[in-house]
Fold this sequence. Notes:
By secondary structure, the protein is an alpha/beta fold. The protein has six helices and 14 strands. The strands form two sheets. Strands 6-5-4-3-2-1-14 form a seven-stranded mixed beta sheet, with helices on one face. A seven-stranded mixed beta sheet has the order 7-8-9-10-11-12-13, covered by helices on one side.
Amino acid sequence: MELTWHGHSTWHVTVGDTSILIDPFFDNPHTDLSPDDLDAPDYLLLTHGHADHIAHAAEFADSAVVCGTPEITGYLDDEHETQETIGMNIGGTVEAGDAFVTMVQAMHTNGIETGYGMDAGIPAGYVISDTKPTQLADEESETFYHAGDTALMTEMRDVFGPYLQPDAAAVPCGDHFTMGPQQAAIAIDWLDVDHAFPMHYDTFPPIEIEVQDFVNEVRGTGSDAEVHVLDGDETFTLEG
């Protein structure tokens, strides 16, 4: 599984022959790319409707299968030409090419900021795996958790970690609108992952942090997770 961070919460995940783009927002200082620079993904996953997460969704909606809450997929279907949509909800798993995508809860606000105050349903995160989630551990599987915009939740400790068993997690740590470094580090400890990635930081002034604080906080929890502070558009290969 290949994980590429394009800044903010924008990730490109490759599972086998399937490419997945999450929360496309390329107007951020960590990437030099524009939507036109990317090959069209097979699937587009949207965690929630805020502008810094769906900003460039329309550029991919006519070529990718769009996944999100029914409210978000319905909005894109109404406002833009979409190829295909999959409206799903918290706890559901769908097969997406070579990947299995499970939508999980995020603790945040939601809405589509078009001036209409449109409800976008429940904010979400995604757990992406190359095998179908089961209660039987598969040591060869590769599983990545994208936490979306979220506060710290005990579901990370009680559900996501022990039952969905991610190997790697990308967590927001910019504070102000989401978790800051301390709570994001606790999330990594609770999830019991091998690899941790900071996201949703240093995009605009309210979420500017010293990212080393996140690294230090993870160490302070006693977690064994290896923290990877990626440069924009850098790729990490996750191996089971």
